[in-house]
Design goal:
A hairpin with a 2-residue loop joins β2 and β3. α7 runs parallel beside α9. The protein has ten helices and six strands. The chain is 42% helix and 14% strand.
Length: 231
């Protein structure tokens, strides 16, 4: 086992020992990709969530969307997304994501949405843009429901773009220069409607593939692996 892999593996083992039976335990018990897996064979799951705010202790998950990425291919057949029925009222956050209280009422319970996401994530690496939002909110939700967080390998397209722009936090001096839609524009990717979970997950997946192509151009003789891109 790689030394670089042990921290995540150890956290998964600890989480598995204390979590309740269910989809989280099933995920933690399943093998995840090795860090030496080449990117052309790496299975990922692009994930996006919409929330009422930025504080996982106070704010709630309103919607979750995901799209599998198998090597260099986006698998739309495996895509999924749900609005969360028990998220309470949307409040002022509706001005950002457009999710209405009526849409929430027609959604699924958070436990069911999390279960579907965790089953889709089994055997894959989580892919997101500024992944801290997804990992903190989803980890907190898993902790409340099953008694353990969500220790998984993460590839963050925000971090990849920061590295591509020069590596430092001042690498992109313009405000918002590392945002998802700004980064997509640099690669000539199409404009989608923002702040819809499934659409944003697809947008993240496409950005990752564009960034991968850039990595291949920069060092065509090098086999780029999960080890090189993990956040």
């Amino acid at each position: 086992m790689s030394l670089l892999r042990r921290p995540v593996a150890a956290r998964r083992e600890r989480a598995l020992r204390r979590c309740a039976p269910g989809p989280l335990a099933d995920l933690l018990a399943s093998p995840s990709p090795e860090r030496d897996t080449p990117l052309e064979r790496l299975p990922l799951l692009a994930v996006d969530i919409e929330t009422t705010g930025l504080d996982p202790a106070r704010d709630r998950v309103l919607a979750v969307g995901w799209v599998p990425v198998d090597g260099g291919r986006v698998d739309l057949g495996g895509a999924g997304g749900h609005v969360v029925a028990d998220a309470g009222e949307v409040g002022r956050s509706a001005t950002v994501h457009g999710i209405t209280d009526d849409a929430l009422a027609a959604g699924l319970p958070l436990e069911d949405v999390l279960g579907a996401l965790l089953r889709a994530l089994a055997g894959r690496v989580l892919l997101a843009h500024f992944a801290r939002i997804e990992t903190t909110f989803l980890g907190a939700a898993c902790e409340r429901r099953w008694g353990a967080g969500l220790p998984v390998e993460v590839v963050d397209t925000f971090e990849l773009e920061r590295r591509a722009r020069g590596g430092g936090w001042d690498a992109a001096s313009e405000p918002g220069a590392l945002r998802l839609w700004t980064a997509r524009a640099r690669y000539g990717l199409p404009v989608y409607r923002a702040h819809e979970a499934l659409t944003d997950a697809l947008a993240c997946a496409e950005l990752y593939l564009a960034q991968r192509a850039h990595l291949d151009e920069e060092a065509p003789e090098t086999t780029t692996t999960l080890r090189h891109v993990v956040a």
